[in-house]
Amino acid sequence: MTLEQAIAKMNELQAAQQAYNHAMGVLSLDGDTAAPSASARGRGETMGYLSGVTYKLLVNDEVKEALETILQNKDAATPLQARQAELLKEDYDDTTRIPMDEYVAYSTLITNANAVWHEAKQKDDYASFAPYLEQIIDYNRRFASYKDQHKPAYDVLLDGYEKGASTATLDPFFALMREKLTPIILEVAQKPAPDCSFLEQRFPIHDQRIFSDRLMQMMGIPRDRCAIAETEHPFTTNFNKWDVRITTNYAETDVADSMYSVIHEGGHALYELGTADEIQFTCLASGASMGLHESQSRFYENLIGRSLPFCRALLPVMQECFPDQMKGVTAEGLYAAVNRSQPSLIRTQADELTYPLHIAIRYEMEKRMIAGDVKVGELPALWNQMYLDYLGVTVPNNREGILQDVHWAGGMIGYFPSYALGSAYGVQMLHALEKDFDPWCDVEKGDLSRITAWLGDKIHRHGRMLTPPQLLRSAIGQDFDPSCYTAYLTKKFADLYKL
Amino acid sequence: MTLEQAIAKMNELQAAQQAYNHAMGVLSLDGDTAAPSASARGRGETMGYLSGVTYKLLVNDEVKEALETILQNKDAATPLQARQAELLKEDYDDTTRIPMDEYVAYSTLITNANAVWHEAKQKDDYASFAPYLEQIIDYNRRFASYKDQHKPAYDVLLDGYEKGASTATLDPFFALMREKLTPIILEVAQKPAPDCSFLEQRFPIHDQRIFSDRLMQMMGIPRDRCAIAETEHPFTTNFNKWDVRITTNYAETDVADSMYSVIHEGGHALYELGTADEIQFTCLASGASMGLHESQSRFYENLIGRSLPFCRALLPVMQECFPDQMKGVTAEGLYAAVNRSQPSLIRTQADELTYPLHIAIRYEMEKRMIAGDVKVGELPALWNQMYLDYLGVTVPNNREGILQDVHWAGGMIGYFPSYALGSAYGVQMLHALEKDFDPWCDVEKGDLSRITAWLGDKIHRHGRMLTPPQLLRSAIGQDFDPSCYTAYLTKKFADLYKL
């Protein structure tokens, strides 16, 4: 196979993958937003069929030969082609190293585990879920060994979600979080809570929908390329830079809930909307990693969206959309309310300050689960003990404890740390940006265009051209430094709570 | 190839076709309902790719051999298998008899013609659309000759949309429509128009959405298998009997518009929802023809939905959803209003009585277009003359004249007659049903379940097992008789307008 033939084959593969990913992505989105409930069966048939086709598209000798040909002649290929071959070969290796029968058995297990978890959570019945979790842990450990039997299994899993992540960097990261944040969290708990009652009035969903449009407008999200829908859990999905979707969920008596969902998902969307034209319809057209993606969503949600200047810009918009509810509220009052910090049970509802400790608990648990030094039956007790140790919170039941997250039921062990990493990356990006210009005047005017242009140039446009550590270094000119994150949180909450 | 192998191959083909049709159907629906405007480009790429795959799925020697093997051994196959092979072979022949390069050129022409038509309609500029229409006519004439060079081209096209339809039956059908309906239309025009003003007040779209749910409930549409969305033009699409979608379009000052769209599309939906379990995920799982489909939608919309008993059931529901607007309205007043008849310009807004003549005009024009005895430049004048002759209406411009329908721009010549045929089929079905039981007590109570069960048994469950004429004969026990349709219309409007 000549290099030219290999590149043609690779392009053909990517065009096909894009088409199938697009189709399956829309089927899935439709299932979450518009499809009637009984449609699941037909969708299952279709998804199963198309998954089989995409498997065969990638896993065949011709593709293997093409990718190897390009990788052996990297210098003769363009940098984009070389990187595409690299990522596709990683994907090929990941897919082929697991024996087909194990892969199928694992897929079935996950489907069943998910259904069991849903019911277990509802009924607060950990025992029914435990055998599934045990098998999921076993499979993940085994799959990690197929990938690299010389590295600790949990390191392999971490690297699978966030290239370059390992316990060597995450152990000190989470230790630092605990060391620096625990004292502040304890101090904040002694202070009077800010008034949040005005955010908990009745906000008709019809008005919240209009408010979402205004928020997306403030964020500079081009609506001809990005639509919003409603789902139980908010998410972002993208097909190409001309077609990105975010979703939110409206609670009538909690306007901040959807508001920060829209800003968070809007951050994910801006990343995808900002990928370069020349990488569209290839495997490079997407965020660099989960962590980098979270860095963008949390950048907009917390660093910008929960700042005082943004609250100043937000208040008149809220007062326009909700005149009765927001009457008499000040920007400072809004700022205090959206930053109320309080140790709590549920990760997804945690504030910016306590959030990293929720992740630290999951990280610690996953490490022990994969190491095999704790039995599955003992996990709830361990969870509850850690919530008490890390956050001073007593867990009343498993529903609000170990059963709260979908991740483990979905087979995702090693995924949680990227949430905290993303937040930490974001703070370093903000510092780098502030060296180039002062963003806060713009933010106060509700104009995020210069900020998005800066992130677009440093992060968004590159897609998956660089590995996460490469991209971070190229964007901020330095390596990962978690102390920036703890320093940021310490200062923000010391100011807010006058510590 | 053994029969067993052939059947396995055919089943494999159908499973694949179902998956691709489902995926492409959802992509298209998403494009019409939820996708951002700039998404068209990426969707075009994906649809193009998947169309190519589905072409190759069907058009290959192995499929040909399999289908021929089954057709040669029909008696050894089950009736379902034999019918599947028959329909798939028809599809295979239709697809392969057109040379690939002509097919591609025609697809491109249609895509362009559609865009040009949109603009031409907006700008009332027939001249810009004319060269496209000319080519479309030429292609259709040529494609018809590829299919059967011994039959008149227009007969071939008619048969393509409605198996068994031909000028031999449609010429007398439309002649009868003109002969019987024109005098009534003229008489009605002399009578005072009923009061419709209460339907043209402000009906907030939010309330209309709730009303749509109530209408679907009245129709007995199972919502776990059928969802509703909003599009510019209402339509129905189905993926299998567990996943059917209808759409509507809300006009704030015209509540009847969306109301009858929901009932019409609901009729299409009930057809698809009622197909038998054992034909799902095969090529049989769909309505028998366009005409049969319209027979169902117009059955619910006109025969039931515009009847006095249904208005009696509808009124309290409308009064619940729109108490201010519907105050003091009587069932008789509602019945008169939703049946106002008036010769008009636009087919899609025509009433039940004048509608067939709109179709008659298109039928006559298509016949001449395909025969080639009228130049494309002369078509608007012919259109306008026929509107004057058939309906006594003066066409002020081409936008509201020859450019009003999308069909010809979409390459659909020979499609219109199925609308009128469907209405006529429906009346014969109603007569047959009335021989089995009196439906009107049920209708007055808002209970359509016995009616839907009857249609389900006679029509819906069969899917494409029978040809349209076979199905009609099996359902009503007699052949097609258009005089039932004219008699029904004559009686209804004579009563309504006291002629």
Describe the structure.
The structure is a homodimer of 499-residue chains. Chain A has 499 residues and is mainly α. Chain A has two domains: 3-150, no CATH class; 167-496, Orthogonal Bundle (Neurolysin, domain 3). In chain A, strand 2 (236-240) and strand 3 form a beta hairpin. Chain A has helices at residues 3-33, 40-58, 61-72, 79-96, 100-123, 126-147, 153-161, 167-190, 205-218, 255-273, 290-304, 308-321, 331-338, 355-371, 379-391, 417-436, 440-444, 449-458, 468-476, 483-496; strands at 226-230, 236-240, 243-248. Chain A has a three-stranded mixed beta sheet with strand order 1-3-2, with helices on both faces.
Brief synopsis:
The structure is a homodimer of 499-residue chains. Chain A has 20 helices and 3 strands.
